[in-house]
Design a protein that fits this description.
Number of domains: 1
Strand content: under 5%
Oligomer: single chain
CATH class: Mainly Alpha
Number of strands: 0
Distance between the termini: 58 Å
CATH superfamily: Tetratricopeptide repeat domain
Largest sheet: none
Helix content: over 70%
Number of helices: 9
Order of helices and strands: HHHHHHHHH
Mean pLDDT: 74
Structural class: mainly alpha
Shape: globular
């Protein structure tokens, strides 16, 4: 009886002092699907501490930060967009043949040229890796052409300048 009690006490102490397991990918995906992007990004970051070479975790962290950049204030959007870029590029680097990762990174480059220069050029390079399409209205090549037409001119330069000024202010304000 004493042995069983001692064993129970020791196991309880060991469990109480043990570190929690890293966040699971499914927890982060659940948070992402419920539009809790900031919490999801934290879960994926925690999981990446244990599994640094997981393309899937980088992919989901990148998606979370990309959506967070879309809904965040202009003060923090650029920082989130940079984190999204880092994670999505890491996912593609770890699994270069994964078409889902390539497509997400392509979409990210198309949708966020205001946060960093060269995004549309990077999308063009990815387009070569994605492969040829039929040139229809919703194909990647047509969407890249449309994005290049949309994101040029004096009006675009002013808009980009205002957004980047907000990002600078966001760095100064904690």
């Amino acid at each position: 009886m004493r042995f069983a009690s001692a064993l129970f006490l020791i196991s309880w102490v060991v469990l109480a002092e043990s570190k929690p397991e890293p966040a699971s990918q499914s927890d982060g995906e659940s948070l992402f699907r419920t539009c809790q992007f900031k919490a999801a990004a934290r879960k994926f970051e925690e999981a990446l501490l244990a599994l640094q070479n997981s393309a899937s975790l980088h992919f989901w962290a990148g998606r979370s930060y990309a959506r967070l950049a879309e809904v965040a204030s202009p003060l923090s959007a650029r920082r989130n967009a940079r984190k999204a870029q880092i994670h999505l590029e890491a996912a593609v680097k770890l699994e270069p043949a994964n078409r889902q990762y390539l497509a997400e990174l392509f979409e990210f480059y198309l949708g966020s040229p205001e946060w960093f220069d060269g995004g549309l050029d990077r999308a063009a390079i990815l387009l070569e890796r994605i492969g040829p399409d039929d040139g229809g209205p919703a194909t990647p090549s047509k969407r890249l052409t449309d994005a290049r037409n949309e994101f040029r001119g004096a009006g675009w330069s002013i808009q980009k300048g205002v957004l980047r000024l907000g990002a600078v202010i966001g760095r100064l304000v904690p």
